[in-house]
From TrEMBL:
Record's bilayer topology term: Multi-pass membrane protein
Top-level taxonomic group: Bacteria
Entry's transmembrane regions: 20-38, 45-66, 72-93
Pfam families listed in its UniProt record: VKOR
UniProt name for this protein: Vitamin K epoxide reductase family protein
Main location as per UniProt: membrane
Length: 147
């Protein structure tokens, strides 16, 4: 069976179909999310590696947005869904790394980072004692009941 090649060079930016990057990238992010829900903690180097990956992803997605809008002049629903998910993943990982000190934060920007962080740093390590994590605790309780 012969598989037709994409008609635009942007569809294979690195010599293979772009969706393969998405499949691998989202599988990694999903696995990390499941591990965090299960209580895993990761070292600084791990978070910096994830930061590098999501930064590459958000830059690549913005390049693809430009290509779709101004060069190809066509949109696909799958692409737009990937764009809509990649940007929040980038911001969540970036804010987490800034808040935890994995990335340096200028003194004047520390309050802005703390205000933009979805989970308060003060209770990020104390799941049971923090009211901000009640939703996460409920998810973990449900997961513990599964066979």
């Amino acid at each position: 069976m012969v598989v037709p090649r994409p008609s635009k060079p942007q569809a294979e930016a690195f010599g293979f179909p772009n969706p393969l990057l998405g499949i691998a990238g989202f599988a990694i992010v999903t696995t990390i999310g499941a591990a965090l829900l299960a209580g895993a903690s990761f070292r600084r180097l791990f978070w910096l590696g994830l930061q590098a990956g999501v930064t590459f992803g958000v830059v690549f997605v913005h390049w693809l947005i430009f290509q779709s809008l101004y060069r190809i002049q066509a949109l696909c629903p799958y692409c737009m869904a990937v764009w809509a998910v990649t940007v929040p993943i980038f911001w969540y990982v970036t804010l987490h790394n800034l808040n935890r000190g994995h990335l340096p934060v200028p003194t004047g920007a520390q309050k802005a980072v703390a205000a933009a962080t979805p989970v308060p740093h003060c209770c990020a390590d104390d799941l049971d004692g923090c009211a901000a994590h009640t939703d996460r605790r409920a998810v973990l309780d449900v997961l513990e009941t599964l066979p």
